[in-house]
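Standup notes
- DV: blocked on the single-chain target, sequence here:
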Amino acid sequence: MENFVYHNPVKLVFGRGTIPKVAELIPAKARILMTYGGGSIKRNGVYDQVTKALAGRPLLEFGGIEPNPRYETLMKAVDLCRREKVDFLLAVGGGSVLDGTKFVAVAVPFEAGDPWDILAKDAPPKAALPLGCVLTLPATGSEMNMFAVISRDSTREKLAFGNPLVYPQFSILDPETTYTLPERQVVNGIVDAFAHVMEQYLTFPQDAPLQDRLAEAVLATLIEEGPKALQRPRDYAVRANLMWAATNALNGWLGLGVKHDWTTHMIGHELTALYGLDHGQTLAVVMPAVWKHQKAAKAQKLIQYGERIWGIREGADRADQAIARTEQFFRSLGIKTRLSEYGIGPDRFEEIGQRLEARGERLGEHGNIGKKEVVEILRLAL
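- DV (later): unblocked, structure below
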């Protein structure tokens, strides 16, 4: 393992009936902006729980944050915060709402130009509004990390940033809030969490047996509990296990001291930006293709993964078997694993490679994936 420093200030409040605790966790005199998405929190009772807990407090609302939150939408929230002198943000929803709220948090006090520069030019934010979270969709791990991914319609870009200033002060995780999620969102969340684990785990042996075992524990939980969540959507134990697994997939623990490979996510972001595919859909398509392309470099970890997770212990093609079993798992959840199944052909593959190259991206744990390799990976995903 390599040297590392780890700092995570998030206070997690986990379990049924925990939403009213939001009143204790937000400073009494705070001017609060509650952010949310398309309105599902008003149908599943979460909105009522939050507003009841904060009754009598200065509480503004901003709804309509999209999946793959849009810069254009978020800047309206920034304007509202500045105008109303908001000093605390409360994200109520899934990872997209929380990611968007993190961007609002740093954009409101940003004075060094266009806040988009935080993503496009790595402009460092100097301050951020404090924020908290009531999570309703397990997927991104954003409730316990310092990262966010934001899209911009005008440039058709989907970019990420990370900064310790946007760690949530607290995150409330009540598994009962996930009971009414559409199946498509549940599946996307399972795939997203699975990919988060794999992009920290499936690289090369790094003398980090504890990190490997932690990652494998999360993978095994997702594989066991994911299908149950589709079959028994109101099973509290299943929903709790799935929610906790998704948080652990990207809260920083698994990747400590080891090199990562975020190729799948980076290519996936481009597919979402250009074609509008769900984030989870892009991951299910791209990840097997990345592994096929990088099979020689990843062979030892693919074989280890295949043996420990899928019980593959025989055959000269154990790496191929591991890839195939992963793809089978995704398809068993009802998600497609080929670009052609979404009607996407190779006509824009070069453009995707060029977009990544223009940002100076060299992908992979060895930095050996450039424009040419990106195009090759996409062709394997057809």
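- Follow-up: The CA atoms of residues 211 and 254 lie 6 Å apart.
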